[in-house]
Amino acid sequence: xxxxxxxxxxxxxxxxxxxxxxxxxxxxxxxxxxxxxxxxxxxxxxxxxxxxxxxxxxxxxxxxxxxxxxxxxxxxxxxxxxxxxxxxxxxxxxxxxxxxxxxxxxxxxxxxxxxxxxxxxxxxxxxxxxxxxxxxxxxxxxxxxxxxxxxxxxxxxxxxxxxxxxxxxxxxxxxxxxxxxxxxxxxxxxxxxxxxxxxxxxxxxxxxxxxxxxxxx
Length: 217
Ligand SMILES: [Zn+2]
Known about the structure:
The chain is α/β, with parallel strands linked by helices. It folds into two domains: 1-33, no CATH class; 34-209, Carbonic anhydrase (Beta-carbonic Anhydrase, Chain A). The chain is built from ten helices and six strands; from the N terminus they run H-H-E-H-E-H-E-H-H-H-H-H-H-E-E-E. It has a six-stranded mixed β-sheet, covered by helices on one side. Strand 1, helix 3 and strand 2 (61-66) form a beta-alpha-beta unit. Helix 8 crosses helix 9. The protein is globular, with a radius of gyration of 19 Å. The model has no long low-confidence stretch (mean pLDDT 95). The structure holds zinc ion (ZN). Residues 43, 45, 68, 104, 107-109 line the site of zinc ion (ZN). Residues 43, 45, 68, 104, 107-109 line the site of zinc ion.
């Protein structure tokens, strides 16, 4: 068997022992349904698993992952809306109290979006998907177009988080809940180069470290 698959099976055995043999309480409860407090919208990138990064337990977080953690604007029509339907379920059925958009450093999706090449060599699905983040790219190019590439990439990673937050507010049932104080939208940025998590401060209009010193729990 492929060692990668073997490792997953080994991992599942460990998981089963933890949650179904040693400690059965959690899944005895979760068997009856889920009540996650938060919806996390994260990138597909294998290095930024939201449950892993935040050490969350099963049942605590409803997760949507897609390339570059993007949220499309509210647009009810006859096409298949995977992201919007998952958002609808989390907000209207599960009634989550928080929506967190989790972006990250070294995002391949944002890198593709920012490279000049991608317009010339469109891919079958990815190019179209990334056009969702075009306003973020435009903002960065306008403001920082003459600055080093690395700085532009980080700015676009952050800007795309803000764009997803703005797009969330175009959903009427999200706006309603936010305005009533029943739902809060957060923008987080995980810098995997420095091992730091940032939170967008809307008053200061910048991302600030969220977790404090590494040894303070
Ligand atoms: Zn990414």
